[in-house]
Amino acid sequence: MTTERRLLAEQLSLGYHDRTVITDLDLVVPPGQITGIVGANACGKSTLLKSMSRLLAPHGGQVLLDGKAVHRMPAKELARILGLLPQSPIAPEGITVADLVGRGRHPHQKLLARWSAADDEAVAEALEATGTVALADRPVDELSGGQRQRVWVAMSLAQRTDVLLLDEPTTFLDVAHQIEVLDLLTDLNATRGTTIVMVLHDLNLAARYADHLIAIAGGTVHSAGAPAEVLTAEMVTDVFGLASEIITDPISGKPLMLPRGRHHDRLPA
């Protein structure tokens, strides 16, 4: 099992040059749970993840990991604890799948230390878990979008961090592989206690797989809590400007959002 880590943001303000995206945001990531972050396009979800992984310095406030400001932690120390899978990552030209997944082990290697049996085991387990063993010797740039996404997830798994941040991990995946990846992350959380934070566009998948849901709107937290508390018709209207009906998912028991739209609405308003 991994060590439970306390990750939170205090009065966090973020942006690019003179444009502010996040303003005075406070949030707490429950340790050892899966947190889903949802919100409309350009609301700051990806920007928030970048700052939580120290890729983007805050304009104000701070992100704390076990009481330490992440932007003051040495990069390698942070990378041994916290991993990030960003949107649309770019692989070095010509690199093979096995080599890319192996890069997830770099934070754990000391200067001049040799590749170890533990590194081999971590890479093999990550390839097996993501169904990419057969792709190990292929160049990443020859893969389909869905295959590449699974390889990037494998690299994140090989890093074996206590906290894993994922920005749209189901991008480019068909529905079957979306469920496979989300089931895999649930397994990782259940077996190793990894704290997982993932940005998802699909509200229903976020509600089904997350223990804790955070809705972002207007550069701050609109609501946070259990999916049944957060995924409400009022939240969908406030955050997405969409009329909807919320029912109970007959499979998971979690809330299920049905958009009303203009053409197929048979329910009374």
Task: Give a written overview of the molecule.
The chain is of the alpha/beta class and 269 residues long. The protein has one domain (7-259): Rossmann fold. Helices cover 32% and strands 26% of the residues. It has nine helices and twelve strands. It has helices spanning 45-52, 75-81, 97-102, 117-129, 145-159, 175-192, 203-209, 227-230, 233-240, and strands at residues 7-16, 19-29, 34-39, 60-65, 68-69, 82-85, 163-167, 195-199, 212-217, 220-225, 244-248, 255-259. The strands form three sheets. It has a six-stranded mixed β-sheet with strand order 6-7-8-3-9-10, with helices on both faces. Strand 7, helix 6 and strand 8 (195-199) form a beta-alpha-beta unit. It is globular.
H/I helix tally: 9
Q: Indicate the CATH class.
A: Alpha Beta
CATH-assigned fold name? Rossmann fold
Portion of residues in helices? 25-40%
Strand percent estimate: 25-35%
**C-alpha Rg (nearest Å):** 19 Å
N-to-C span: 49 Å
Q: Order of strands across the biggest sheet?
A: 6-7-8-3-9-10
Average pLDDT, all residues: 92
User: In total, how many beta strands?
Assistant: 12
Provide the CATH architecture: 3-Layer(aba) Sandwich
User: How many domains is the backbone divided into?
Assistant: 1
Shape: globular
Largest sheet: 6 strands, mixed
As residue ranges, the low-confidence spans are none
CATH homologous superfamily label: P-loop containing nucleotide triphosphate hydrolases
Estimated structural class: alpha/beta
Instruction: Please write the string of helix (H) and strand (E) elements.
Output: EEEHEEHEHHHEHEHEEHHEE
